[in-house]
Amino acid sequence: MSLTEGAVQALVDGALPQDYPNAVFQIVNVKRITTSTNQDRFRVMISDGKVTMPAMLGANIAASDELLNSVICAEQYLNNAIKGKRLLILVKMRVVKPGSEVGGRMGNPVNPHASSSSTGNGTASAMPAAPQGSVGAPSNGVGGVRAAPIGNGAPAPYSHQQPAQRATQGDMRVFPIVSLTPYQNRWTIRVRLTQKTKIKTWSNARGDGRVFSCDFLDDSGEIRATAFNQAVDKFYDLLEVDKMYYVSKGSLKPARKEFTSIKNEYEMYLNQDTNIELCQDGSDMPRQKYNFMKLSNLSGLNNNSLCDILGVVISTEELSSVTAKSSGQQITKRDLTIADDTGVSMRCTLWQNEAEDFDGTGNPIIVIKGAKKSDFNGCSVSSSMNSALIVNPDIPEAHQLRGWWSSEGQSMQFNSVSVGGGGGGGHTNVFKVLSQIKDENLGYSDKPDYFSTMATILYLKKDNCLYQACPADDCKKKVLEDNGGYRCEKCDKTYPDFKYRLLLSCNVGDFSSNQWVTSFNEQAELFLGKSAAELGELKSMEEEYDEAFAQATWKRYDVRVRAKTDTYQDETRVRCVCMSATPVDVKAASRRLIDEIHRLQSQ
User: Fold this and answer.
1) What pLDDT shows up at residue 603?
2) Do 322 and 387 sit in the same domain of this protein?
3) Which of 121, 229, 466, 599 shows the greatest Cβ crowding within 10 Å of its Cβ?
C-alpha cells in the first residue's frame, strides 16, 4: 500500500482534482468542529508521505476521531483557495486502511510553508496565492472550480463545459453546491431543479404574503431555495422541474432543518438580485438524490423529523377530510398503509391534491422525499407542503423493492408500528397477537383497526346464534312471524318462508391472551363445518346440535379481525369482528416467524 506521492505538493500549487483522480492520502491530524447548526464537521490534515495540507470533510461523510492515521482514497474532492490558502474539500472518500491497523504516521511529511506560519495543532498553514492560470480566488477571496474550456472532452468532476451561448463568459467559475457558504457573494452554481412546491399564501396581522420552495442538485450535493412575494413572480414560472439552470447572487443562511430533509448546513433565498439562466446541456448531471431510511428505523427519529422514505402500498383508504385548526377549512386526506423489506408496515397520510389524485391499485411503489415522521398513535409518516411524492419511480431502489414484493413480500405478514393504521381497506398482512389489542389500544381511533392473527377456538356461544332471516339474496335482516308468514321490515315484504343465518360469538386464544370475536354467517359456517340450514335442522336434536359445537373447538385458524369501539348501556368496549378465516397456512406462518427472527437479530 502506497500513498500518491507528489499529489499534495501539486495541489498546494493549484493542481486540479482531475490531475490526481482517486488519490491515496493519510490523515495525520483530525479536529472536530461544531457548526452554527450544531452539526459536527471534521477538519483534517492529509499527507502523501512527503507534504501535508489541510482538508475539510464534506457534510455527507460520516466520520469520527478514529480517522487519525487512516489511509483514505479521495474519490471526489475539490481544491479551493480561501483567503490565499489552499483547502481540499473531500466530497466522497473511502477508508483503505483504518488508523488502528496503520499504527502511525507514514513517512516524514512536512508543512511546505511552516516557516511562514503554522498553527499550534497543525491543522492549518498559510499558503501562497495560487499561481496565475490555476484554480484561484475571485475578488472576494473565495475560490471555485475552474470551468473546462469548450471542446475539452468529458467534463471533470464539479466543473462544466460552457454551452456555446455562454462562450463570452469563459472566465466564469462554477462552484459546487457543497462549497457555498454565507461568507461568499460572487458565485455561480450549475444545478438541476429536482422539486418545486406549490405557491403557498398567508394572511396575518403583518399583511399578506406568498412563498414557494425548490431544491437544486449537482454532483456534490443539494440545497433548498426559497422565494417570497416579488421573487415568486420573478422565478416561479421560469423554474421547471428536471431542467438545468445557472444560479447566482442568491443569499445563504443557516438551514431550518425542520422544513427540509436535505443534508446541507445552509439554504438559499432567491431575491430580486438573484440571476437564474437556463442551461441547455444537463446530460451529465444526476436527476435526484435520496437518503432513504428503512421503515423499521423511523421509530428512532424525533417527532416531526423529515426523512426520505420508500415503500410499497399494501392498502389504500377512501378520501376523508379534517378541519384545519388554524383556518377552519376542510382539508382532504387519504391514509395508506406502506411496507418495506424490513417486515414493518405503517400508516402514510397524503393531503389535498396528492390525496385526491392517488391511485393505489396494483400496489404501487412510492417515494416521499421530505416525509414528516409523527409519533401520534405509534409511528407514521405524512406528506407536507415541502415534500415530494413520486409514484413508481425509475430508480434501482424501487426496482429492487418491487422484485422483493413480487417474490415474497406480498405473502408476508407485517409488523405494524402505527396504532390505527392497521390497514385501510382491511389489508390482512398486519400481524398481531391478541394481547396487542389491549396493549396498543386497538379500536379506539376514529377508524377501525384491521389486523391478522393466528388463534385457536376455545369456546362457541351456541345460545341464540341462529336467527330467522329474510330469504332475499341481497338482504340479511331478521324477519318476524306475521299471520303465518315472515315479514321483513327492510324489504317491506311478507314471505312464506325464511332462511337461517348465523351470528356466532367465539372466544379465541393464543399464547398471549384470549378475545371474544363476533363471526357472521360465512365465517361461522367455516368454524362449525356445517351450513346454517343444516344447523337449523339439528336444532330440534339437542345432542347432535351440541356435538356440532363441541367438534368445532380447539381448531386453529388464520383470522382477519376488525376492531372498533362501540357503546352499549353507557359502557364503551372494543368489539372485534371476524372478517375472514382460513385454516392455518403452516408454510406462511413459518416464513413470518423466520422473518421476525431476522428482524430482531438486525436490531
Assistant:
1) 66
2) yes
3) 466
| φ and ψ of 178, to 5 deg | -65, -20
Which residue has cell 443562511?
253
Closest CA to 77 of 156, 171, 173: 156
Which pLDDT belongs to residue 139?
Answer: 35
- Which helix (H) or strand (E) segment holds residue 593: the answer is helix 586-602
Residues in CB range of 603: below 8 A, 6 or more apart: 296
Q: Which residues are CB-neighbours of 555 under 8 A, at least 6 positions away? A: 456, 457, 527
Say if residue 58 is in the same domain as residue 90: yes
pLDDT at 458: 94
Which residues of the chain carry a pLDDT beneath 50? Answer: 115-171, 421-428
Q: Are 453 and 573 contained in the same domain? A: yes
pLDDT of 122 reads: 41
Residue 196, Cβ density class (10 Å: 0-12 exposed, 13-18 middle, ≥19 buried): middle
pLDDT at 116: 42
pLDDT of residue 66: 82
Q: What is the pLDDT of residues 371-390, one digit of tens each?
A: 888 887 678 899 887 788 88
- CB pairs under 8 A, 24+ apart, for 546-554? 546/462, 549/460, 549/462, 552/457, 552/460, 552/527, 552/528, 553/457, 553/458, 553/459, 553/460, 554/456, 554/457, 554/458
Instruction: Identify the DSSP state of 34.
Output: E
Looking at 116, 137, 158, the residue that finishes a domain is: 137
Contacts made by residues 479-483, CB under 8 angstroms, sequence distance 24+: none
- At a CB cut-off of 8 Å and minimum separation 6, what does 577 contact? 517, 518, 519, 520, 561, 562, 564
Q: Do 78 and 91 form a contact (C-beta atoms < 8 A)? A: yes
